[in-house]
């Protein structure tokens, strides 16, 4: 079997393993934080809600919010596009006009990338 085929099979197996795992819910996160800090779940819920509000305000105001050691949330302005014909995959397609919009992106911080 060619090395490329082995790599593709390994990638498929890894993707199936990732599909089986579910992301941690807000309640699960509150429970694990409460256990780690010996605080009540209600106090942790208040902290998470205030963190959400602060992050939202900061992204609206400055366009950037960093959770130290975890991720960076940024906004980016996408310009408006005109309607017309575009060449896509060898075919000419009619495209509708799109208004300008603000896109929110989150990316991991270098410290998190190095740990994974």
TrEMBL record:
This is Major basic nuclear protein. It comes from the Eukaryota. One of its GO terms (molecular function) is structural constituent of chromatin. It holds the Pfam family Bac_DNA_binding.
